[in-house]
Amino acid sequence: MSSQRFTPLIDPFDRRVRDLRISITDRCNFRCTYCMPEEGMKWLDRAELLSFEEIARLARIFVEYFDFDGIRLTGGEPTVRADLPVLVEKLSGLIIPSTNKPVDLAMTTNGSSLRLIAEDLKAAGLSRLNISLDSLDPQIFNLMARRNHLDKVLDGIEAAIEAGFAPIKINIVMIRGTNDHEIVDFATFGRDKGLQPRFIEFMPLDADGAWTMDKVVPADEIIQKINDVYPIEPVSHGPEPAQRFRYKDGMGEIGVIPSVTKPFCGDCDRVRLTAEGKFMTCLFAVNDFDLRAILRSGGTDKELIEQIKAAVGTKWAGHNIGKVNFIRPSRSMSQIGG
Ligand code: SAM
Ligand code: SF4
Predict the structure, then answer these.
(1) pTM for the predicted model, two decimal places
(2) Which of 60, 99, 260, 332 is the most exposed place for a label (fewest CB within 10 A)?
């Protein structure tokens, strides 16, 4: 496709959609309480997952036809998918038509396998990493992830630093009464290691259905607690969901993602592809669009493009978490792709 032929994807609320989250597996080696049930997850059959070729074809359409500038690989746990660097290599070469620059290719991972593959991912062209880590205390980590792997994750973070990823963001889902006493510890950890903590408000996407509003730790409280110890000031930012702050002493940044208390839907520029090829225009969308059916019935790029446009035409203004008309999605976070 020539660089003259891209068509920006605009939704009914005049938002330019340009960021694609791709879930590459529904499986995971952890069972975080806020995401998966302890037992009984039904995994997709291998044949149901999009192949690397199918993912790469769709990614090419989003970047080259719709001028998307960001792709994030997620899951489930993306590093449990075999030969991940091969996929990264296929995607990292995509060029954004409007800027002629490579697409920003990021990944969110629980970090437990990074000692094994961080270097290969870097060499394959992965640009950025978010690593999830909910507690620095082994017992609380174990309680939240239901796996005793804090050491592995900390070592994975070291491996990512050694491989040259920078800046690395640390995703922390805050849950009242569980890890909210560690806010300042995480700030200190980030300052010491040159990492950017991103505190995420707990969303009602847990498979156990245990979410309640009183388990949400409001972003404002997190900002306040950090500012009391390490003074911070806001950093202006684009459509990204995180509100960013920098330390006044120059020792780095933190972010908060106030998905529940201050939804950022008005700036939302993202869409999602599930591991089995369902296209979703919101984490909380109740409808999805089957791109795999088009791919596997020999559909043309034009047919895929028309389906994507039609789907984006249904993107809603925003979710209503905490309001009476909120509809809890039937899929959990690991099934949609966080
Ligand atoms: N397995 C990888 C990981 O944990 O980083 C990638 C997938 S995970 C679904 C993506 C992100 O979603 C993680 O940072 C995770 O903490 C976050 N997440 C999962 N369930 C959540 C929930 N109910 N509320 C807020 N964030 C959640
Ligand atoms: Fe796995 Fe990530 Fe979900 Fe935890 S948050 S269970 S690591 S997919």
Answers:
(1) 0.94
(2) 99
